[in-house]
Amino acid sequence: NFADSISYDTQQPSPETFKGICTEFFSSDSPFINSQTVPASSRAAISQAFRVSPSPISAMVALERPLYMAAESRILWPVGATITVGFVSGRWGGTPTVRAKVEQYAKQWMLYANIKFVFVQGSDADVRIAFDTNDGGSWSFVGRGCLSRPKHEHTMNFGWFDNNTREDEFSRVILHEFGHVLGCVHEHSAPLSPFQWNRRLVIAYYEQQQLQDYLKQGYTVVQARQEVRTWVEHNIFEKYSKEQTQFSQFDPESIMLYHFEAWMTTNGLSSGWNRILSPTDKSFIAFLYPFNAV
Question: Where are the beta strands (DSSP E) in the chain?
Fold first, then answer.
């Protein structure tokens, strides 16, 4: 069983870039999930079911040497594992173009990790992908969490991909979500993350981004604001404890880090739109899934 928790990370690019919200769930009886947008109705249901602990983040992988990234050790795959990946059929099965892009970028992880993604016909697979525009944007269950989901449910979704999606957006989102498949968690929640949040502005920003979504689901204004503030507190401001993780320093280039503007912090820190694997992403995943494992 996994320790119950839920964590979100939201971002809103400028119009000339791309939208994106990332959500990270940890649950004892349910798989870990990470997504890039989850509608208010889904967030409320998941939050009600999973939010049972004020300190939701549980034991992270214990490393023998300091690294920059983090991963949830209990849901890591065995070293050398073959992970099958399939696409749902029907309306949300995606075009041949977007399916090919998912396979292309997912397999970049295989250059550095001793795992194998095998793409199969149909949805009888460990990782089952949909391209449902009505299913909360882009998200993925984290690590082996996908194995506990019913076979008729998809375990990953790309909610805004089409044949006109920019190449660097394919790279950014697919690499990130498959990083979660391998067990990686968000970089900004690391114990040594340097962000010092301007709490008032951050809450106001996410209220602007999410309030209407909650109101459409029937929440009152007061209820909707409380949901957003709880969301921000838990998923933006909280960090993993040093006792639960081992870090040397923060990796500002990690594919697992999301974009934050400088005005969101009191120390003027910001983060860019990371769209490729960083050197540390590569070395960390190689540490978790070594090719020379006995």
Answer: 5-11, 20-26, 32-35, 82-87, 116-119, 127-130, 139-142, 156-157
Give dist(CA 281, CA 287) in Å, integer.
10
pLDDT in tens, 13-43: 332 322 344 555 443 333 333 444 333 443 3
Cα–Cα distance measured from residue 284 to residue 278, given in angstroms and rounded to the nearest whole number = 10
94-98: which pairs have CB atoms within 8 A and are 24 or more residues apart? 94/129, 94/130, 94/131, 94/158, 94/161, 95/162, 95/163, 97/163, 98/131, 98/158, 98/161, 98/162, 98/163, 98/165, 98/170
SS3 193: coil
Length of the chain: 294
Show the 3-state SS of 201-252. HHHHHHHHHHHHHHHHCCCCHHHHHHHHHHHHHHHHHCCCCCCCCCCCCCCC
CA dist 163 → 2, 100, 170 (Å): 38, 11, 10
- Give the span between the Cα atoms of 140 and 146, in whole angstroms: 8
Look at the alpha carbons of 184, 185, 187, 190 in this order and tell me if their dihedral is positive or negative. negative
The Cα–Cα gap between 259 and 107 comes to 24
User: What is the maximum alpha-carbon separation in the chain?
Assistant: 57
- Residue 69 is predicted with a pLDDT of 60
Q: Please calculate the CA angle 190-194-198 and round it to the nearest 5 degrees.
A: 110
